[in-house]
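Human: I would love a firmer grasp of how sequence relates to backbone shape in proteins. Could you go through the record with me and say what the backbone is doing? Here is the record:
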Amino acid sequence: MSRPTQTLLGLALLALALLARGWFEASPMRHMLMQYPLLVFAGWLIAAVLMRFGTGDWNRGGAACLLAALFAMAFWMLPLMVDASVASLSIDLAKSVVLAVIAGGGLRLGWPRAHGLARAFLKANAISMLGILAFLYTHAPVRLCNSYLLEDQQRLGEGFLIAAIVLSLLWTFPLIAPPPAPPPGTRPKLVLSKRRVALLPCPTGLALGSKLRPATPSFSGSRAKAPPHGRRIIAQHSASRC
């Protein structure tokens, strides 16, 4: 799918989330587990035409965009802001713009540049946050969001728990699954290195596996002279023979 097509699809999803605002926000599960991800995904698609914008030094490692996306999602997950978005149309429009532009666009611009450890940390953070919200919404004795009933709040907590389990399975299965087997009848390709190895010629008469002997020192110029005590020993040996 081309980038302009992704942007058009993202704008269509953003318009759908705004036009169906009453249906989404009538239930807390549809509001936070359907509209919120829809807005983030719409922003992810819209940011396809802005990929060059996130390649600057200001977004090294995707840290700036990812931090902005995390703060935006954490802010609009607060029960006070959830109530405010249901009660006011202007706040709901601001929520839609922030989640689409900052959260979705920030993830699109920062995720490809993030390190593998940073991605793993963000995934673990998302699962843990969903688990904490599930415990909070299911065990709270009073309503956290005044716009919804206590029973709806407990069902929302169960939905957060299911979402945490599903995401943990989706992100963990590729790590433990065996690699796919090649189709039958195919041979694995041998990838050769592009580096060139220089082969040195073997000296003549040197067998494979033989040890090299240390080279004897060569004397240039005049012949080597024997030491003085050596000359005396040679003279005495000659006299005794005479």
In short: The mean pLDDT is 80.
